[in-house]
What we know:
The protein has 307 residues and is of the alpha+beta class. The chain is 49% helix and 27% strand. The strands form four sheets. Strands 5-4-7 form a three-stranded antiparallel β-sheet. Strands 8-9-10 form a three-stranded antiparallel β-sheet. Strands 1-2 form a two-stranded antiparallel sheet. A hairpin with a 3-residue loop joins strand 1 and strand 2. Helix 1 (32-53) runs antiparallel to helix 2 (61-75) and helix 4 packs across helix 6 (188-203). The longest helix has 43 residues, at 222-264. It is rod-shaped and about 135 Å long.
Amino acid sequence: MGLFKRDDLKRGSESERKVAETEIETNDASRGGVYLFFLAMFAVGFSATFFATVAFASPLTVAVSTVAGFVLATSVRIAPQWERVVILRFGRFNRIAGPGLYCCIPFAEYAAIHVDCRIATASFSAEAALTADLVPVDVDAILFWMVWDAKKACLEVENYPKAVLRSAQTAMRDVIGQLNLADISMRRKQIDRDLEEILGKKCEQWGVTVMSVEIRDIMIPRELQDALSKEAQAERERNARIVLAEVEKDISEMFVEAAEVYDRNPRAMRLRAMNLAYEGAKDSKGVLLAPSALADGFNLPRSDAEG
Length: 307
């Protein structure tokens, strides 16, 4: 399975550039049983031939026994549960062998490739991909894929892991080139689905199924980060000022409505004055200092007092 690694290079005196390199990642699963079976078959063939020819006391006994052991070991082989083996006979495709025990005709058939049919993961990146508004961005993503047809993976493409990753990188650049910088972060899921659809159609002819693509990180140039940060701060300040103005407008309208109520009914104004006096006395622990205008609110009109 191919994997992209990054090496940091200097770009001028301040910026850095990341370059992707392809490597084959080692498989964590053990194939020790396959090699042990090969040695066991070799030992059986060598021992059987040696003891059968030792009576002739020929100097070629060891050589013949070695050849016999090698032929038996390469003829009877095993494949792990997750592997499929492409068998060629005289250079032409013959069959798919495995998992388990399989046999090859000596000197006529051979295993062309061992294909891992499990779900594979690989990371890839699109370096300095240009957006629709010509902003270079670096995008890191993870690709989940598997081989469903070992025959196509062997015969249709030279190196299917590398071909899948190169196709993923190209598709990523194409998708990023259709979006503006502001749309990339908001449409991550849509980008994942678009990449999965594009790669699925392209890799199907190689016997490979792309299960999902997930973007891990989107990096923009450092010189643009400050500008975007200032733009975001200005936008937030603008929104805050708009909200504050709307609140001030609502409060002023409520004050106008309250003034109309107080103007229509003087008693409402006196009740409000009493409430303010109560609140002031409560906050000042019983001591009330009020202007004379507020004290006038406690004086009832003569008509009310007589009534």
